[in-house]
UniProtKB/TrEMBL annotation, chain A:
Highest taxon of the lineage: Bacteria
SMART domains attached to this UniProt entry: AAA (SM00382)
Keyword Lyase: no
Full protein name: Peptide/nickel transport system ATP-binding protein
Pfam families assigned: ABC_tran, oligo_HPY
Location(s), subcellular: Cell inner membrane
Alphabetized CDD domains for the sequence: ABC_NikE_OppD_transporters
GO MF annotation list: ATP binding; ATP hydrolysis activity
GO cellular component, one term: plasma membrane
Homology family: Belongs to the ABC transporter superfamily.
InterPro entries: AAA+_ATPase (IPR003593), ABC_Ni/Peptide_Import (IPR050388), ABC_transporter-like_ATP-bd (IPR003439), Oligopep_ABC_C (IPR013563), P-loop_NTPase (IPR027417)
Domain ABC transporter intervals: 8-257
From TrEMBL, chain B:
Keyword presence, Transport: yes
Family that this chain belongs to: Belongs to the ABC transporter superfamily.
Record InterPro entries: AAA+_ATPase, ABC_transp_ATP-bind, ABC_transporter-like_ATP-bd, ABC_transporter-like_CS, P-loop_NTPase
GO BP, sorted A to Z: transmembrane transport
Keywords, alphabetical: ATP-binding, Nucleotide-binding, Transport
PANTHER family documented for this protein: D,D-DIPEPTIDE TRANSPORT ATP-BINDING PROTEIN DDPF-RELATED, TRANSPORT ATP-BINDING PROTEIN
Ranges where the ABC transporter domain occurs: 6-241
Domain of life: Bacteria
The species this protein was found in: Antarctobacter heliothermus
Keyword Transport annotated: yes
Protein name, as recorded: Peptide/nickel transport system ATP-binding protein
GO molecular function, one term: ATP binding
SUPFAM superfamilies: P-loop containing nucleoside triphosphate hydrolases
Pfam families according to UniProt: ABC_tran
Length: 288, 250
């Protein structure tokens, strides 16, 4: 395992849906790689950012179709992988944190039970060992009294705690890649940063690759190394997070300027003027 | 003149041992034409205050005076002509099987507005939609367009006070900017008074002049937005909120 093979290598990825009025392209030929870094993917609703995250795990069901010249996880082609092996990969080597903990935790199973189940699905460990590791990982995501929380049900924990439990669950089998799809947009601002800090620390400590999908450009800029900005299924701009202020694409600038900023009040917010040419411009490659 | 005058408001849910206080001893005034923001995390009671004003929560005590009218257990029809509410989720607040035309004409019919036909065209223009949207169903509209319809509905009876419950939190940032601009324009044109709930200090800071910061059902601080910008917040919780929302890159 040489370190210069990227964790994730995607070339010319398309996600298509057959509809009554012809084929709809949700993702239109994007290319990117993910190393041991934090890659942010930003765009509005309908820009194809979530579809990209799902396509990487082949989580798009028919009539949706995934096509790519290359879709490799650590050098292994996953487009041709049988479904059985895919299931091992999902949650094992690549895991995903979804938007709302209310919908991603099982409401009739205790938190601990779910953690143990997810670990034992990927590793042959004994119950007591799994319990021990589950409590350790709860502690890692800054949950106080992990033994008590282990026995709680999802409705007994707050949204921020639920999302930290989700992150704990996803980190248990030690994945190489974490895909976080709007992990904090269901949370309050005051809890958001806390959850992000925890995720950030874990990702860095473990040397994982993170794909961070969000509509909030400012948040992503603060939190990622590289940012890919998506529009209409294509990547319109890729830049280092530290150089976001030098971004050139009018869409990126529009997104940045449309956010009301507490420190720099303006009478009117800038409204995006969408240029049809953006849609037709070829996708920028985010391969490294 | 004060548009809204609230004194010692308590709101609770449940009875007996189950009784939970959602709002505790809250007092604030909003002047005519002012825009007042309520911020706090989920469960802090900010939306409950709006719902209590609108008459959607019957279990409250204290004094509420809105547009010169002291509120009791029931609201008069005249009250609803003066006070209207816009809800958070435009996907949930419009009837999926009614056209924009029907949504708006029903609201006007209830308030006995004359000349509905002409008013609808005017309302749609006001919210920047245009007559082409009149006979569309909600599923034919985007999130931002739906919120525009919801705002048009709240303006249908020409109210003087709008209660805004997180009107942009279900929308993309780019669409949020459009709706916030619209709200700014409408306020100027119609001389409206706003009470707006949001958990986003940036949004509240953009639209409001004064802000009440809530925690666990109480006001921890009421301060002017200008003071907040100059970091003059006194309460540690307000400072914490400020620190977590100042995340701009420029």
């Amino acid at each position: 395992m040489t370190d210069d093979t990227p964790l994730l290598d995607v070339d010319n990825l398309w996600v298509r849906f057959r509809t009554r009025s012809g084929v709809f392209d949700a993702v239109r030929g994007i290319s990117f790689t993910l190393g041991r870094e934090r890659l942010g993917i930003v765009g509005e609703s309908g820009s194809g950012k979530s579809m990209t995250g799902r396509a990487v795990l082949r989580l798009i069901r028919p009539p949706g179709m995934i096509e790519a010249d290359k879709l490799e996880i650590h050098g292994e082609d996953i487009l041709s992988l049988p479904e059985r092996q895919m299931r091992k990969l999902r949650g094992g080597r690549v895991s995903m944190v979804m938007q709302d903990p209310k919908f991603s935790l099982n409401p009739v199973m205790s938190v601990g039970h779910q953690l143990v189940e997810s670990l034992r699905a990927h590793e042959p460990v004994s119950r007591s060992e799994a319990r021990k590791r589950a409590i350790e990982v709860l502690d890692e995501v800054a949950i106080r009294e992990p033994e008590r929380v282990f026995d709680l049900y999802p409705h007994e924990v707050s949204g921020g705690m639920g999302q930290r439990i989700m992150i704990a669950m996803m980190l248990l089998p030690n994945p190489e890649i974490l895909i976080a799809d709007e992990p904090t947009s269901a949370l309050d601002v005051s809890v958001q940063l806390q959850v992000l800090d925890i995720m950030d620390k874990l990702v860095r400590d473990r040397g994982m690759g993170l794909m961070f999908i969000s509509h909030d450009l400012n948040l992503v800029a603060k939190f990622c190394d590289r940012i890919a900005i998506m529009y209409a299924g294509r990547i319109v701009e890729i830049c280092k997070a530290s150089e976001l202020h030098n971004a050139k694409h009018p869409y990126t600038l529009g997104l940045l300027n449309s956010v009301p900023d507490l420190e720099h009040p303006r009478d009117r917010l800038e409204v995006l003027q969408r240029d049809p040419a953006w849609r037709e411009a070829p996708s920028v490659s985010a391969r490294q | 003149m004060t548009a809204i005058d609230i004194r010692n408001l308590d709101v609770w849910f449940g009875v007996g041992a189950e009784r939970a206080m959602a709002v505790k001893d809250v007092s604030f005034q909003v002047a005519d034409g002012e825009s007042f923001g309520l911020v706090g995390e989920s469960g802090s009671g900010k939306s409950t205050i709006l719902r209590a004003i609108a008459g959607l929560v019957p279990t409250w005590s204290g004094e509420m005076k809105v547009a010169g009218e002291a509120l009791g257990a029931r609201r008069s029809k005249a009250f609803y002509r003066k006070v209207q509410m816009v809800f958070q989720d435009p996907y949930a607040s419009l009837h999926p099987r009614q056209t924009v035309d029907r949504v708006l004409s029903e609201a006007m019919g209830l308030h006995g507005v004359q000349d509905i036909d002409k008013r609808i065209g005017q309302l749609l223009d006001d919210v920047g939609l245009g007559a082409g949207f009149r006979f569309r169903y909600p599923h034919q509209l985007s999130g931002g367009q739906r919120q525009r319809v919801a705002i048009a509905r709240s303006l249908a009876c020409d109210p003087s006070i709008l209660l805004l419950d997180e009107p942009t939190s279900a929308l993309d940032v780019s669409v949020q900017a459009e709706i916030l601009n619209l709200l700014t324009d409408l306020r100027e044109e119609h001389k409206l008074t706003y009470v707006m709930v949001s958990h986003d200090l940036g949004v509240v800071g953009h639209l409001c002049e004064r802000i009440g910061v809530m925690k666990e059902g109480r006001f921890v601080e009421v301060l002017a937005v200008d003071d907040m910008r100059r970091r003059k917040a006194k309460d540690p919780y307000t400072r914490h909120l400020l620190d977590s929302s100042i995340n701009s890159v420029r």
